[in-house]
Amino acid sequence: MKRDYYEILGVAKNASAEEVKKAYRKVAMQFHPDRNPGNKEAEDKFKEAAEAYEVLNDADKRSQYDRFGHNAFGNGRGNGYGSGGMNMDDIFSQFGDIFGDSGFGSFFGGNSGRSRRGSGSRGTNLRVKLKLTFEEIAKGASKTIKVKKNILCTNCGGSGAKDKSSVQTCGSCNGSGQVRRVQNTFLGQVQTVTTCPTCNGEGSTIINKCTACRGEGRVYGEETVNMDIPAGVSEGMQLSISGKGNAGERGGSPGDLLVQIEEEPHPQLQRDGLNVAFELYLTFPDAVFGTTVEVPTIDGRAKIKIPPGTQGGKIFRLKGKGFPQVQGYEKGDQLIHVSIWTPQQVTQEEKSMLEKMQGSKNFEPHPEKTEKSFFDKVREMFS
Fold this sequence. Notes:
Blueprint: H1 5-9, H2 17-31, H3 40-56, H4 59-68, H5 88-92, H6 95-98, H7 104-107, E1 126-132, H8 134-139, E2 141-152, E3 167-169, E4 178-185, E5 188-195, E6 204-206, E7 218-229, E8 238-241, E9 257-263, E10 269-272, E11 275-282, H9 284-289, E12 291-297, E13 300-306, E14 315-318, E15 334-340, H10 348-358, H11 374-381
Parallel strand pairs: 1-9, 11-15
Antiparallel strand pairs: 2-7, 3-6, 4-5, 8-9, 10-11, 12-13, 14-15
């Protein structure tokens, strides 16, 4: 089971963005691979902390995590380093924000392969809305959608260059992506390492740009995306599909596709959390004599017996006929609320029969002490 992101960084759920950043800096320093060479446990904790920071440092992702926990990214194609998410290069690319370009790289070995930013910049995340029926939400669904976005340029393979000979090693940093500066201070000479301003840390420059993408390594197009929606999602829930957002510039990693769930209204059923509610209208004779009726459910139709003398406001419960919990074991119920249908117009014959019954004491209301009040029934219905 995945650990809580707040627990990983050691911060409270109401921690500010600055507190989250400081906590991540501390954990990253403690478990950095250069400080723990060959230590697999430290490397896993380092990745775990980076995953937690990626979510908690993003206002939208943090909001979704606070509402749904790991299930917000839990369709097997979302966040997480084991499911096609960030790799070690992506993690180290965060350090410009956390530690600044000037100190962290040189502190942990300076010119190691990790300190180079790599080609291109990461693509932006893309948001889409997806409507689901009650049946699809209850059982889960496989969906295929077409997304218009920036895609990889097939002409240059994403490099942004006209051909291989159009890419040359940066002369300012000699391909390292970094430049070193020596400053004289009262403590003596201090050497700092910063991102190369000529190539922006890529280590190479393009002489002749690709004519199809004008050097960006991406073009505007359309991609078909397949996704599996887990059972039990709800209105407003956001699923993250890693790497299916906009393509990055010049070979940079792609952004994520953020899928926001919308529920299509059901013609007869209402949803309340995991429960499903249905309003059942009975005729007066059926309420008196009892009957068997069919009611709609998210699994089809079901028959229920109405006992004689059923009162208006009675609530029947069909156990397990509601929605499942997302990636959990709990399942809601279907609640059937009975209303007695009163005709607005009656014939003369019907009027005569009703007038005869009107004086009968048997038709006078006499609720028993065990009869639940209206407010108790409402609480029961939504409990």
